[in-house]
Amino acid sequence: MYRKRLKGRDIIVVDMTHGGMQLCESYKECESNVVAVDSHNTLSAQERSSLSSRSIPIFKDFIAAVNSCDPSLVALQYSPDRENISLFCGKTGIPLLSHAKAAGLLLSKRLQESRVVEITGAYGKTSTLSHVESILSETGSSSLVMSSTGIKMIDGSGVHLLDEHGSITPAYALKAVSMADENGFNPETFIFEVSLGGLGIGSVGAVLNVPLHLNVGIQRSAFFSKSQMALNLPRTSVLCLNADDAPARKMELMTSANVNTYSIERENETVTSNKNALYPQDNSMELIIDGLHTCTGDTVDTIFEFSPNPSFFGKAAVSNFLAASSIALSLGIDEQSVITGLEKSPPLDNRLISSLDNRCTVISSTATSKEVVMYAISEAQEYASIISKSLHIVIGGKAKTTCGNVDFNGLSLAISNILPEFGSLGLYGGLGKELVSRGCKGTIYQSRDHAISSLLTDRGKVILVCTN
């Protein structure tokens, strides 16, 4: 029904970098007159050719796009002049949608009979989704999963990869669903890892945490962008919130959906645990469920124990298990499937996982931002203090992340300020060179393996390796 309203309408899609291509294609399928604004000038020659072949003109400037048509709708993700676009739409009475809301409306009819899970947050999304995926596999439910690791179908015959180039822009959900349809796959459950916002079609939505330091999306605010998950969810849905993250916790005041909260630090939340961190000597953890709402209208009260893979490390690991349990139980999945799924869920490479080598604890993490690196250091410091061992840190890899560069100056300053607190600092690769050029003092290594092998000569160390 919604798609029929779009026929013949002029629609401007702003930002081709973060999902605009998928929106353009979907609006064109609705027989809309689509105009693209490449606000970041990132379209490849192939992408430009693809848009041109579908009679979609491309502009660098929003006003130039407006002057080329009579817009009935504007869909915007990021743009340097987003405030001016918003003001223009308000003054001229043109509906302005975020990419998340636009994609949700386009998918609303297609997914109205399906279970839909949407997960957003600054970190932990992919790990939490991986746990949920493992739980769903135990139920025998067919699922489509969209995450930073790709798009895949899961059914009784196994896992089938549809797209190995993962994207978590909200509009990428359009491509994920389209790929399922093209392969004749009609899953019971769709799981979307979403970078910013919520599509508004979830049976269960989850906000793991909010990166307040990022000035992105709606009103240049990560908070307002991610709060779309709370604002857009239907009343009949369930919203799972991380009570240890103050901005996420407050989103319960922004939604009419039922709310479940989880916490590793606070008591009296819906889902809690007997542990707030997982360390190499731990072999089990207990979850306490108190008054959890399900999307089927039931309430769950239970206590159960499970034994996770011993490679999971730190507070984030426990938090992700709580998030996944909240989501799965909110879907109405039975307790035994949750237990078995969590126990079988494998750790993901470089996502705060630990291993033992020559009696040293080696912890691997990503280095995609200053905040992620400093969080990993704090986790490793706490563990090293508990077992009274020295902490050694290795940082390196590529200098460029998916959507830009690491805050080299901020990271270098932060590391320099705490350098006396640990045993040594090793640096390698483009990231290491950038930190050295900004005054970060450390030993230069040829590679990650070279750095680790050099440190393993003495037993009993805790070694944190942050790799981009």
Please describe what this structure looks like:
The protein is α/β, with parallel strands linked by helices and 468 residues long. The chain is 35% helix and 25% strand. The protein is built from 17 helices and 24 strands. The strands form five sheets. An eight-stranded mixed beta sheet has the order 9-8-7-10-6-11-12-13, with helices on both faces. The chain starts with a helix and ends with a strand. The model has no long low-confidence stretch (mean pLDDT 92).
Q: What global shape is seen?
A: globular
Average pLDDT works out at: 92
Largest sheet: 8 strands, mixed
Share in β-strands: 25-35%
Oligomeric status: single chain
Structural class: alpha/beta
Task: Bin the helical content.
Answer: 25-40%
- Side by side, the strands of the main sheet go 9-8-7-10-6-11-12-13
Low-confidence stretches: none
Count of alpha/pi helices: 17
Q: How many strands appear in the DSSP assignment? A: 24
How far apart the termini lie comes to 45 Å
Please tell me how large the radius of gyration is.
Answer: 23 Å
Summarize the structure.
The protein is an alpha/beta fold and 468 residues long.
Layout of helices and strands:
Elements lengths: L1 H4 L4 E5 L1 H14 L3 E5 L7 H9 L4 E2 L2 H6 L3 E6 L5 H11 L3 E3 H9 L7 E6 L4 H15 L3 E5 L2 E6 L2 E6 L8 H11 L6 E5 L10 E4 L14 H5 L1 H5 L5 E5 L3 H4 L8 E5 L8 E3 L11 E9 L5 E8 L7 H17 L4 H10 L8 E5 L2 E7 L3 H17 L4 E7 L2 E2 L2 E2 L2 H11 L5 E5 H9 L5 E2 L3 H8 L6 E6 L1
Helix pairs in contact: 2-6, 7-12, 7-13, 14-15, 15-16
